[in-house]
Batch of 3 targets.
Target 1
Amino acid sequence: MEKQQSDFDDALVVEQFNAMTRSIPIVFVNLLFMTTVFCWFVYEQTSSRLALWATPPLMAAQAARAFYWRRLGRRGHDFSIEKQRRMLRTVWIMCLALCVGFSVIALLTLSLPDIFIQSTMSILTIACSIAIALQMFTVPRAALSVLWSVTICTVFVFLRSENSILIAASAALIVVAFAVARLLRDNFDTFRKLVHSRVDVERMRTAAIDLAMTDALTGLPNRRMFEMKLRACAAQGTEFSVAVIDLDGFKPINDLYGHAVGDRFLEEAARRMREARDAGLIARIGGDEFALLIENADGSRASSIARSVMARISAPYELLGVSAKLGASCGVAVWKEPGDENRLVERADMALYEAKARDRGAVVIFAAALEDDAQRRAMIAAGLREAVAADAFELRFQPIVDIATGEPKSFEALARWRHAELGQIPPNVFIPIAEQAGLIEAVTDGLLRKAARTAMRWPEQIALSFNLSAIQLARLGAAQNILSTLAECGLPPRRFEAEVTETAIMSDVVSTTATISALKLSGVQVALDDFGTGYSSFSELCELPLDKVKIDKSFVDKICGDARAASIVGAIVKMCGELDLSCVAEGVERAEQLECLERLGCARAQGYLIARPMTEDETLAFLAERSGAVRKSA
């Protein structure tokens, strides 16, 4: 409340001062007239040449002041509130001086023998004072001082004249003075209310702008404010950088514990970022995405500051009874020349994309090569839309065999796609792009249908292994859609193995676990793909509804020459046995690897040593050759 009153008082002073810049020139015009009349009056009564000599300097001084205030009104000023308040106080003092001057004029007429001259000078004085008072109504103390001092003196002169007409006129003069005083008060009240309304409107406008420019949850500036500040920095022409930070691991927390807990984590992350030194302007520009605007910083300094901010974000959290740890990845882009600001956030996003692709917690500075990659991804995304419409995706199938007998147990379906201009695009490239472009469901649904129809040509004991994306797993009714597709193609659920990655599960724990559980209840087998490269620990496997674990190729590559890798694989195999899970080794390319896996107790294997991915017809030939065969080494 005190702040609001202070704002109103300051606004009133500003408006009073602005009004005076328009009114005071007219006041000085009135004074010029009265000065001329007064000097002429003195000269006529006394024949003194002093009055004639005094007139030009007085008129010049008044004209100079009138010109000064008029220039203020036209050209504006940059005076502080306090200076404006002091100048208004000076105006009031000047008015008091006018009161004294006018009163002297009125009293001097008492010595004149001619009643006409007395009354004429008094009437001119009161008329001039009323005109000045009306012009200065925005400063009521000054206006009323002029009005009442001159009125009282004039009435005194009229009463001392012993002229019945002037005595009667004095009463009328008092009535006029009261009417003018009432008019001054009413006008000032209206003026003050108008100022008050303007202050309220401005306060509401400022509040609306703040609301439009501020993120409601964290209190940080939002994307609109960030982009406005970014353009302002670009206009200054000095180097600055933009860092875009994305939280790693936030979505699982939000999904598992709910939005209330997720919001609290975002608030805490924002609070920590505010505490970072030299972080510049920090804004929330997306769900769990934040941006830093760092002035006078090149890429190296911006990266250092970003790492400091990320270190704060990554400290453990203990909120609402939930213990967790968030990570962060960051992309940095540097402004160097006019026009860069239009794509600076986009470039930082490109760098962020690369950072997340490399490793968690990475900071990547934008380079032209990243823009080339982004353009290539855009071409792939456009090609994917055409491929979905034309059903242009193909499948290859790679067998998974029993290591002891060499007998095929299942085939993993692998997607293949050739871009019209870019040629063959591997799945690890086009699948993530399809996810980002919102095409993954159309892609995987079509591929699943093709794969299931192919599997119907295999023997009953051969299963189909198919990779499910994170988006597909999290989709509402995903399990029912998959089972419906299998039923449409005639493939029993017991012959279907759903391969899921740890990353896919952790991206939306609640939804993906529900989908996996529903599939298992229908007889579908569930395999955890690329084990050892994602989030899971051994203990977490106990909580997941799994049937099989696939050991990642990175461990199999080192199994023969690296005792540590062999120990890890052995531990995974032993753990799977204790949890009653099947174990498959991926990426087997050499005979010695297969021998090592067999010694460690791994039951099944997949890789180029056994067979490369095959077409549908090639799978039938492979099955005819291998079915019933016994093979313990390549």
Note: The first strand starts at residue 240 and ends at 248.
Target 2
Amino acid sequence: MHIFSATRARNLPVIFYILPFGRVPEFAMACGSGRPSICGILDMALTITNTNTLALLNILNKNLAAQANTFKQLTTGKRINSGKDDPAGLIALQNLNAELTAVNASLTNNQRSDSMLTIADSAIEEISNLLGEIETLVAASTSSANLTAAEISANQSQIDDALSAIDRIVKTTNFNGKKLLDGSFGIQTSNVAGNQYIENVRVFSRSQSTSDTALTVSRVASAQLASATFAFAGGSARTSGTTQVAITGTLGTAIVTLTSGLTLAQIVSTINAAKDQTGVSAIQRSTSVKLNSTTYGSDSFVSVEVLSGGKINATYGTSTGDGNTTNDIHSVSKQSGVDANITINGQAAGVDGLNVSYSANGLSLAFTLDSNFGKGNTGATRSTSFTVKAQGGATFQLGTTAETRSTIGIDSLATYNLGGGNGTARLSELKSGAAKALKTDVAGALTAVREAIKEVADVRGRIGGFQKFQVGSAINALQAAQTGLGEATSLIGDTDFAIATARLNQQQVLINAGISLLGVANQQAAAILSLL
């Protein structure tokens, strides 16, 4: 007996034919003679090796592995959980994550730097306010005619308190345990202490070079005071009648009254009594009285306006003038001083009177020329030199690489270190009993405090500029980079939950179908036993 199976397309039932021995050829002949009802029985043999089950198991295992990967993506939120998930994407993702880590670290650094500089700015603002109070007290004390000695002493006491407050702020202003304004962040120099040609050196920033920077300061042309001739007279010449003149200088205007019969020396003394209001001093020459500004440079000026009188007799003793008008006091239009012409390492430097500023190759600094050197009273000596060390300062990391570091210098703002520019005194000299106290030299005190105000404003402006244009712009750029890199890493590495959920549903259907079909395929093996 032979057993044959016949299958039909479109899921028709399997038909088994049991033929007696010896009839197989006839059956084959029948199939070959075009009888389709039995031709399909030879499509597949029914054996104990169930190839359908094996194929279904392979497909089912693949679907289960795919489902497990989808579960992992949904659980971790990451599309790439191992290198095999997306090798090229993994490489790109690692590079982007490294960049994002550097950006996050730099952003944190810059935000801390911004906070630090904000604290420094607030402290400097308070120092500026105190300097304004000191200036008010000094200016009020210049008019000694309408102030009592007790009032001047009271003003001096307030100035002392304000100076002490400045020093206290300098000592106590800190960030994360580091003092900000006491000179701890000053950039170091050499050949400055003891240099008789320059003083008050302040280095605001330096390059990141590990080598020191040598600077040669050369005087091309001397600075000059603003100057005007007040009167051409000499010998025994004296004023004839009362004269009133308005003398104007950098500090302001004063109305000076010259009574009749004053000698040239007395004229000089009267004018100098008001120099703290005008910024103009007088000196006696052999045949004239000269007026000079008390400071050098193009910003300094002198002008004279004769309001009344003005007669000077060459030979005093008559009640009328001598008729020689060339000896008289005449109005003089504004006469300005001249800034020194200075080069540093061959490059022209910015000069305001005797104050020099220089910026090149990441180095920015300022200093004051000694008055003798600045006005050319040093003979053949036309140059001097000093060195900015590659040490000190406050270094900030602005970007993600070493090339984006920047170093600024913050010198001490203590009273002993403020002022001193353009030939003025230090602020500490305004204290009681010092050289520029109100009772000693009120005019010098006013000039010194105004110079200190300029210096503090310069420091605050430079710190503010660095905070805004360096730190602030770095924060903005890093925040933009952080956003862009975050979007890129999310696009490459994060799971798209909509797609993954749809894929999970598809995989679940395929797995369920595979399990159901395995049951059908297993029934084929059971059918063999029913034939025995």
Note: Residues 87-141 form the longest helix (55 residues).
Target 3
Amino acid sequence: MKDILNLTFPEIQEVIRSRESSESPPYNVLIYRNIMLEPIVPYLKYELLSIGLNPTITIGEYDNVLQETILNSECNLNTTTNLVLVFLQMETLSSALYSNILKLNKAEIEDEVNRIKEYIQSVIENIRNSTNAPIIFYGFPNPVYSKLGILESQIGFETSIYQQINNFIRSFNEKSVYIIDANTLMSQIGYSNYFDKRYWHIGKAPFKKNALIGISSEIKKIVRALNGKSKKCLVLDCDNTLWGGIVGEDGVEGIKLSKNYPGSSFYAFQKEILSFYDRGIILALCSKNNEKDVFEVLHNHDDMLIKEEHIATHRINWQDKASNIREIAEELNIGLDSLVFVDDSNLEIELVNLELPEVQTIHLDSKKAIYYKDILAKCGFFDSLSFSEEDKVRGKMYKSEVIRKKNTKSIINIENYLQSLDMKMIINECDKFSIPRVSQLTQRTNQFNLTTKRYSESEIKALTEDDNYNVIYFQLEDKFGGYGTIGVCILEKSEKNYRIDTLLMSCRVLGRGVEKTFMNEVMNFCAKNLGKELTSRYIRTRKNEQVENLFDNLEFDIVSTDKNYKKYRKNIEKVEYTSHIKVINKL
């Protein structure tokens, strides 16, 4: 779908009409508000449709938030709610703080802030009594024109109060409560393009079109991350993208890349790319070029920040880029919909859009290279709601995986090869240190995922504290390096029986016997805890068909089946086995 900023309102409506009848999964959104917010509906629908969801948006009554969350009326919260949005405007919520703050003494300000906190907490608790759906609050923006004028910037009087309330909302993150940073958003859009004073006075509708689009985009980013739709790999063109000019014509010395203008635009762009790499985004090159010329830049140009060590894989040749991108996805063993392709050529972008519609593309105008950095920074395609130590080394792990694959191609006896890898599996029960990564795996793993259930950090934490659940994960190492935490099994116990709630692994380890070794250890864990029967499920999705027969291969019995669902059972018994994988079991 096109960027919403490039569409007229009738075009947005037409796209919504054409897509609402699609087979995308339904997504029910409920909005509580003390402002008029009806104008956001088409923009929010468009943004959610763009990430493969089919939204139904229900808006609660005007300025009746607390009562509605208490009453939980028929049109409000229920088990089918997927997302709750809360919009509270300070001018409506507290005229004392918004308009009369200078008349209040310190104790009165503190009392009013506590009243607002109690109000927010009650809203969250009331919502949580009815649904576990994620809650997104629109944060409170600082006053643009402070009552203290220029003194405000010296002492931060009003801004500290608003910050305190926003931080209070953030303190509920463990309850799957998220916040939109209104201050950052407003600074990006600009105050004059954000608030509609006329419609605020006429009908308590505060936002202009650009603000409605910006807010909808921020909501989309959070939803995308929560639903495992964030991208994983940034595929980069080289000429007029990573540097200015064409290296094959201008030579290494002639390309534009330096700390000074005009090369500084590309230098800044590469800095931003490396910040993506540092947070766990895989980098790949896809360029029509002579490979030798490109690597000469990577190795020898003094201002080239991106080096060969940062690139997991590359396709530098004269083949069409759609075919090259297919090969990149295959080599990295990730879906095409995990890729973002960046190029300055509109022709190449259009080809990839046509041939590989799953791939997200970003077209850069080489005449406006000064904006490259900002375009990448604001795209939001890679946004995540967690960040772990393993994210910092993901690029290195994928590069090691490419080396492993290249070694595999020359192997004739696969069993001898697997033995030679010296694999070591470390199995642990989830603790406070591993919660972020385990949650992240449930949100990002799609292919080797038997049920595709998503869990926030707070939900994983709750499971680790529940005596009826065991959250087990494993890490893997071999002679090429570590894979990090790449597998999770969530078990639910009921008397003498265990049920596999979630089973997932990284596709990087498929075909190496890792899944059997892990499941044998899970079986032994259940047996040690006197379990008699283990049940499990396979729920088909568009992406996990490759593991449809996993439980069949593990000799589970089928209990029931239909087109998109299989239920299995197996008698629990201690398993004696030998494996080419050394197991260190810390359960």
Note: The longest strand covers residues 481-494.
